[in-house]
Design brief:
- About 75% of the residues lie in helices and about 0% in strands.
- It is an all-alpha fold and about 140 residues long.
- It has one domain: Nucleotidyltransferases  domain 2 (Four Helix Bundle (Hemerythrin (Met), subunit A), Up-down Bundle), CATH 1.20.120.330.
- Helix 1 packs antiparallel against helix 2, helix 2 packs across helix 3 and helix 4 packs across helix 5.
Length: about 140
């Protein structure tokens, strides 16, 4: 392993993004205006992006090579136990992709519900795992 602080810097950004996402997640989603709901889903999008990119940097730091992108990163992280719940992460990835191409209010409402009830929990688990890794180095 080489000394590389890139993943730790990205982890700090990921933790800030997750904290901002959790601020809205604690709110009753039905009370959000359309604009607020859009902001909530946008926060999810950049938090998800930081999640897999932080994992990618972390895995590179751990010595893994010859992989790139969210699919390979998430597969490797699942394989090595850095993240769990393969179905939840697949659903999260698919929801993130759908958000770039859908304008259906019902689908957006379902994704917002999944963010609040499923995805934030998975993102918090990842944060705990990476924070533990960071503190043990």
């Amino acid at each position: 392993m080489t000394e590389d602080v890139r993943w730790k810097q990205r982890l700090a950004n990921y933790q800030k993004a997750l904290a901002r996402l959790q601020m809205v997640q604690a709110t009753d989603l039905t009370s959000l205006s359309d604009l607020e709901k859009e902001g909530f889903t946008q926060r999810f999008k950049y938090t998800y992006e930081l999640a897999w990119k932080t994992l990618q940097d972390f895995l590179h730091y751990k010595g893994y090579i010859d992989f790139a992108g969210p699919n390979a990163t998430l597969s490797l992280a699942l394989q090595d136990g850095y993240i769990t719940d393969a179905d939840g992460w697949r659903k999260m990835k698919k929801s993130r992709e759908l958000m770039s191409h859908t304008y259906d209010e019902g689908q957006i409402n379902q994704i917002a519900s999944d963010i609040a009830n499923i995805f934030v929990h998975l993102l918090k688990e990842l944060n705990i795992r990476l924070a533990n890794e960071s503190s043990s180095l």
